Amino acid sequence: MERHGLATYLIGFVLAVVLTAIPFWLVATHALPPQRLLLVIGIAAVLQVLVHLRFFLHLNFTTTPKENLLALVFTALLIFIMVGGSFWIMFDLHQRMMS
């Protein structure tokens, strides 16, 4: 069984800070064209989620894969509903304002 000590949390914290600082720096300095910048932000966001799952929520697929998979699917469904609903509302409001 893996111990979840201070070192694990510190590694996760440092990775989270780095994965947050990189996109902020790229946006502040305009170092990349907008399309590549969005790609880097998206990749950093996905890596950030994986870091949080691994280092802070301690999810891995070796101990209880069924429960972990169920938790990840439920989380993905909630994110899809929230993000999709937000886009739906924004596009609907945009269409109403244009007519």
What are the SSEs and their pairings?
Elements: H1 6-29, H2 34-56, H3 65-98
Question: In brief, what are we looking at here?
Answer:
By secondary structure, the chain is mostly helical.
Structure, described:
By secondary structure, the chain is mainly α. It has two domains: 1-58; 61-99. The chain is built from three helices and no strands. The chain has helices at residues 6-29, 34-56, 65-98. The protein is flat, with a radius of gyration of 18 Å.
Provide tags for this entry.
single chain; 99 residues; 82% helix; 0% strand; mainly alpha
Per DSSP, what share of the residues sits in E-state strands of 2 or more residues?
A: under 5%
One letter per element, helices H and strands E, the order comes to HHH
How many domains in all? 2
Compute the number of strand runs.
Answer: 0
The chain-level structural class is: mainly alpha
Shape: flat
Determine Rg (CA atoms, Å).
Answer: 18 Å
Helical content band: over 70%
